[in-house]
Known about the structure:
Elements: H1 3-28, H2 34-39, H3 46-57, H4 60-73, H5 75-86, H6 89-102, H7 109-117, H8 119-152, H9 156-205, H10 207-219, H11 236-254, H12 257-265, H13 269-284, H14 286-301, E1 305-306, E2 309-310, H15 316-325, H16 329-360, H17 362-366, H18 372-395, H19 402-414, H20 417-425, H21 431-451, H22 455-480
Parallel strand pairs: 1-2
Helix pairs in contact: 1-9, 3-9, 3-13, 3-16, 4-5, 4-14, 5-11, 5-14, 6-13, 7-8, 8-9, 8-16, 8-18, 8-19, 9-14, 9-16, 9-18, 10-14, 11-19, 11-22, 12-16, 14-15, 15-16, 16-18, 19-21, 19-22, 20-21, 20-22, 21-22
Amino acid sequence: MSSSIVGYLILVVFAFVFIGISSLVSKKFPVEGVDDFVAAGRGIPFGIIAASVMISWVWTTTIMGAAEAGTWYGVSGGFNYMWGAALPFFVFIPMVLHLRKIMPRCTTFTEFIRERFGNKVANLFFIFGFAVVLYVVTEQGVGIGIVFNTMFGIPYWVGAIVPIMIVAVYISRAGLRGSIFNDVIQFFIVCIIFVICVPIILKTIGMDTIYNGLQDVVNNPDNPNYNPEALSMTSIAGLKYGLIAAIVAMGQVLLDQGYYSKAIATASQKDLMKAYIIGTLLGWAPIPVLSGNVFGTSLISLGIGEGAGVSSLSEAAPYIMDMVFGTGIGSLLFVLMAFMAGMTTGGNGLAGAQALFTVDFYKRVVKKDATEKEQMAFGKKVTIAIGLLVAIVASMLEGVSLLRIDIFSGILFAAPTAAFILGMLWKKVSPASAIVSMIAGLGGGLIAYFTISDPDQAQFIGNLIALVLPYLVLLVWGAFSKYEFDFAKLKDYRPSQMVHVSDEEV
Length: 506
């Protein structure tokens, strides 16, 4: 049987399995209203949420992008990816705990923005939140498309489109509870595969081979991957990348409704804090470190680089797996791992978009007197539509570096975070200052990115400006403004749908 036929069979099997699971979940746990559909009834225990958070933050980029960071920066690449991408969760955790305290009946972050700043600012945040979903799910499609093309030789666009549509159908049918249930299953699968594959790769290639190869990368200017800092954990370029990773992830976490939905779905604030800390530090953090320091450094230690064995460094992880395991069981394991990573992250993003459109869009824009049943029906349809849009976009990005897409997105999504964070904590942030801060951050970041000639400097300075400049605008504006917001009124917020809130929070 040819490898391409195996690839097509895997896609077909995945489609039947996951859509079948969505049918079982929807029958086993029939939704009782909008809150149950988009927030899983707000009663999920911390262990399930921890597994869900961990696996939904394991992107295809966590495996393939961290591996690519290992090829760029050597041994520091995976570590810098890890701390940079983990840091925003330790901003998100106190933020969402505070949100649950001051606005207990809130379901989406755009609801808070609307009550805090009004419709104009909320509409901008809705656009940013929707854009994050499009970006996140698109990147998963790109990663899976690369894997199926590299491992099985099937057309990239098939590998990108089909998985995204499987996820879209799954989330459309099963809602957030189905997404979380699926995450737990995939959490165990990904962890088991990683534990099996990493030791085999290291044993097959050999630690001595990797170290000696990296020595050549450091000392031989003729090496296609020449990098004098490849063996340095304090690489300046690597540390700059870590900071960029933190800025990039800041917007991806704080503007991704999927993480809010899971945080809102958690049974209690105590469970929420434990779930996100355990899911991030113990569950997720080892994955990018191992990816960068097993897949990435293995590739460059063998003298393989862009144009010298691979067309793109994004192929580092699947290339090493294919080299070590061939097209047999090892390749299938890696495809399964990458597919699961993309499915869970894509599902988290689509579940977030489903919540945004179901709760904060339909009754406000489409039909003001809609019933909860009509809201849920609309949410299901729009999930399929978003999936189709993202699938088409992903199919057009063949050969584009996942890491470079990630870095550029930081400028777009970091700019609104200052208004969100300070707006939740400081009464002096006004709607006008929020808008100006976003424009300043976005404009300044893009100008720096496109005008600085050195690409590394352009990426670093562009992302830094996009994150920091909005804070300066808001702090200076607030210092001279008489505007003050009354946070007490958020406690009395009542959405149009029935919401189940514990006595602890009201």
